[in-house]
Amino acid sequence: MSKTTMSEDRVLVERFKQGDEAAFEILVNKYSGRAYQIAYGVLGSREDAEEVAQDVFIRIHRALPKFRGDAEFTTWMYRITMNLAKNKYRWNKIRGSKVNISIDAPLEGGGDSSGEERRIDLPDGRMTPDAKSAFKELEKSVREELDNLPDIYREALVMRNVEEMSYEDIANALNCKLGTIKSRIARGREELRKRLGL
Amino acid sequence: MVHAMIKNSYEHNCPTTELLSAFCDCGAAESDLEMTAIARHVDACDACRRTVEAYRQLDRLVAAVCQPPAGLEKRILAAVKTSEQTQVDRPWRLRVFRLAQAAAVVAVLALAAAAVMRYAHSDRDDVTLAQHDQEPAVQIATVETETKTSPDAGAVVLEEAPERLRATGSVRSNDVQTVGIDRNGARAAAPVAQYYLPTTVRHVWTTSDLQQSRRLLDTLAKDGNGVITWTDADGSLSGKIQLEDGKLQALSTACTAAACSWCLRPCRSPGQALRSSSPAKRSPTTWSWCGLVNNVSALSLRQAAEL
Asked: What is the ipTM of this complex?
């Protein structure tokens, strides 16, 4: 996390405290994706991850006026996200997860409820249709195998791929030591590689 | 020197999985020197190069899989707005809800207190009578209140000295039930009660209102001498219990039926009192019981026989 970003966040938080709702919208645009990805790492479900991301920002909106700024905004947000995601995970475990599917949930294989194509970062924009199809298949397998990974590996691995999230940020969010995080990421990668036969 | 060691460390040995993973993340590496050495090794080692390539491909795939859905920001902002609106609308509902919550808590506490008091009261009653005979109380299952007289039931007359308690009741199936009891012989407004005596007394009479019956029999016992007698409809069965200073003084039963199916043991002498005894003088195991009330008291008798 760069110092510029941190100071930008502080300014946005201050602006929001002064009553500038637009500042909050900027924070949502900037960090909602990360909240979603972190939640996805914990839950392995897109619907649940989106629900958690919404709850995170509802909480932030309520609590931000009292936010003292002792920690960085992002650290605070990661903590809230992790707490809510873990609560959701426990709830799912008790109730039986993935039983309910949101009617707004994107359809499997791409395309959301509005018929809009799901945004996927393809590795190479010049891929042939066959290659794209193969990549889609692979992506589907990755999703399945990622869901089947031990939770601690999936969390770390997904967070590692969250934009701008450093090892330190992950360690803070997961309340672990740096070495533990490195080890989990490495093991997660290796496990996933083996399962996918790469 | 250190530089040379690191430089050469991966010439022939492959780096660990953790180091290759860290190498993929570059900036998160232990040190530039070590990464440079690993880079040289990866260039030269097919296996490690393939592993690193696989890790990088996995990263891209994981990133693609975890991409937030389109329109997430808008939906989040809408959810926040809705939530805030709900918050604004909530105060009166919240107040009502909290009032309801408080009322529920008070009700639960009141019920709990009542249950505790009832329990404590019933304990005290048991102790009172148990202390009279210095034996533990026996609890007999509560019987449903039925004031009507069934075909196999008979009238029960519970009486003592005229100036004292008088009770009337009926026997139904296996139990004796009073329909009322008072000092003047008038039918009491409150129906039936059930009462248990300590083990040596066994079953005196039972009614469904445990608390009332306990109080009444307690009064009877405390008042001094009391006699409870009963007989069934055709007069084939009768019984008598005598209390003195709260203690059982005598129990007698008689069976006039030719064949008494309720007898704990065959009635060898129908028409005669099966037993008339005083617990003060005789062991409880010698006690016997006969009649309609036996189904309940039989259990007690068996227990007494085992004592």
From this structure: 0.76
Q: Among A37, A142, A158, select the one facing B68 at the smallest CB separation.
A: A37
How does DSSP assign A31-56, residue by residue? Answer: HHHHHHHHHHHHH--HHHHHHHHHHH
* CATH number of the domain residue A187 falls in: 1.10.10.10
Domain check: are A157 and A80 in the same one? no
Residues 6+ apart with CB under 8 A from B164: B183, B220, B223, B225, B226
Whose tokens are 């009172």? That residue is B128
Which residues does chain B have within 8 Å of residue A29's beta carbon, measured at their own beta carbons?
A: 73
- On whether residue A40 sits in a domain, the answer given is yes
Do B72 and A114 count as a contact with CB atoms less than 8 A apart? no
| B26 in contact with chain A, both atoms CB, cutoff 8 A | no
Does one domain contain both A29 and A84? yes
Residues A15, A93, single domain; the answer is yes
pLDDT tens for each residue of B232-272: 444 444 444 444 444 444 444 444 444 333 333 333 343 33
Taking alpha carbons only, the member of A183, A169, A143 closest to residue A82 is A169
Give pTM, 2 decimals.
0.49
Domain that holds residue A92: 1-97
Q: What angle do CA B35, B39, B42 make, to 5 degrees?
A: 135
- Residue A33 inside a domain? The answer is yes
Give the separation between CA A46 and CA A51, rounded to whole angstroms: 9
Which portions of chain B are predicted below pLDDT 70? 1-12, 26-31, 86-94, 116-307
Please indicate, yes or no, whether residues A13 and A78 belong to a single structural domain of this protein. Answer: yes
Tell me if B236 sits within 8 A of B170, measured CB to CB.
no
Contact B76/A32, CB-based, under 8 Å? Answer: yes
Q: How many domains does chain A have?
A: 2
